[in-house]
Structure formats: C-alpha cells, structure tokens
Design a protein that fits this description.
Radius of gyration: 19 Å
Strand order of the largest sheet: 5-12-9-10-7-6-13
Shape: elongated
Number of helices: 5
CATH topology of the largest domain: Cyclophilin
Helix content: 10-25%
Order of helices and strands: EEHEEHEHHEEEEEEEEHE
Strand content: 25-35%
Number of strands: 14
Length: 242
C-alpha cells in the first residue's frame, strides 16, 4: 500500500493526486484543503478539479496546456505547505438535517446498534450528537459520505444487497453515514430517513453540500417527514462555520 502523496496520470486529460489509498481523517483533510488551495492558482487550461475520499482529480485541456505544466503546478502547490495536518478551507457550512430513526423509516436500526454494541436509543444519540464532515460526494449527484463516527461504528457492510432503499434513507457502515440522494440498492444498513434532498434541480444551489461541510442530524418524528418534504432543503438549516 502507498502512503502517498502520489501523482498519477488519469486518461489523456487528467491527473490524480492521491494522498493515501486508505481512508482516514488526515488524508481526507489534505485532499479537501489541497483542492481549495490549487483552485486559487490553477493555470489557464485546467478546467476541473474534484475530490474523492483521499484524492484530488485535476482535468485539463491538452490543447491549451501541456501535461508537464499541470504536473509542475500541482507539485508547486503540494510543496507549498505541510498537508499532513491541513486546515480545512474557509467558507464551509454546518447543515442540520431532521431525520426519523427506527421503525419503518429505519428498519435496520436495531441490527446496526447491536453490531455497534449499543441500544437503539444510544445509537441514535451517537449519530446525532456530533457534526459529521462531508468527506466526499459520490455514487449519485450530491450524495455525501459523512464521517467519522466513533470506532464502535466500524461495522461491516452487509454481505447481501438490499434491493432498494428510498431517497433520503440514512444508512451506516464503516464509521460513515450516508443520506441517499435517490432510491437505490445498498449494502449499508438503513437506520433512518430524512426529507433532505442532496440534489434538487429546482433549488439554489442544486447540490447544497460541499466536501468539508459538516452535517448534524436532528431526531424528528416520522409524521413530520411529509411536511418537511415541502420545505426548502427538506427542512434542513444552514449556518456558516468560522
């Protein structure tokens, strides 16, 4: 395994800067912070950047800039500071998402809690008690991978796939939480559901969450979800982080 950072070619018009091939707090922070810093000084011809859990993708236009020049720009930013304990960029937000847990909205809550060595009530409390960082967006437009829960939540994915969970399903595995952007199959356990829409073409912005933002879940009654569906962002609230 590589401890990174590694700079790798990715197709005819891309580079991948990989801080680690293992998910952790430090490489995720590094990826988010590096992208913000690189975007400020990216040379003409760089047309897109994006982060994954521990990497940064840089796409460029080969007719406008040579690959070697993009590599030089990436390495210049990489050498500009120590990324092992990088500060997250300014301009982030804290989102509070109402969610109903257990019952029909979270059919796997008891199983997930048991695997974590908790009662269902303790499980909900732990999921809701601390903000979780948006580690990355992926799988579906705007869908966040949130972390990290405590080590007791390092529970595995299921060996069998659940054929379908609804949009807004709150699922857990490997110390992470995901609110689903769309109905889809999953191997993660559904512990709740939120009315929050990860992607809404009618909203501004259409994709509200960004890597580095924080999300806190707030327990809500199942009967509240229908009303929250009619509110902007499914009843979620947003505040600026310092």
């Amino acid at each position: 395994m590589s401890d990174g950072p590694d700079l790798l070619p990715l197709g005819p018009d891309g580079l991948l800067l990989r801080f680690s091939d293992r998910l952790g707090d430090a490489p995720n922070r590094a990826a988010i912070a590096f992208r913000a810093a690189f975007d400020e000084t990216a040379p003409e011809g760089v047309v897109e950047t994006a982060t994954s859990l521990t990497s940064v993708f840089v796409r460029f236009h080969p007719d406008r800039i040579a690959r070697a020049d993009v590599e030089t720009a990436v390495r210049t930013t990489l050498d500009s500071r120590d990324w092992s304990d990088a500060d997250l960029p300014a301009g982030r937000s804290l989102w509070t998402l109402p969610a109903a847990f257990g019952g029909a909205e979270g059919p796997d809550l008891e199983e997930a809690a048991d695997l974590a060595g908790l009662t269902p009530e303790e499980a909900v409390r732990q999921i809701c008690e601390v903000p979780l960082r948006v580690l990355a967006l992926g799988f579906a437009p705007g869908q966040p991978y949130l972390g990290f829960l405590s080590e007791t939540w390092n529970i595995p994915r299921r060996t069998e796939v659940t054929p379908r969970v609804p949009r807004g399903a709150v699922v857990v595995a490997v110390r992470q939480v995901i609110p689903f952007a769309n109905a889809a199959p999953t191997g993660w356990r559904q512990v709740g559901r939120t009315a929050f829409r990860c992607h809404d073409p009618k909203a501004d912005p259409a994709i509200p969450l960004r890597p580095g933002d924080e999300v806190r879940f707030r327990p809500a009654a199942p009967s509240d979800l229908a009303r929250l569906e009619t509110e902007p962002f499914g009843g979620a609230t947003r505040e600026a982080l310092a």
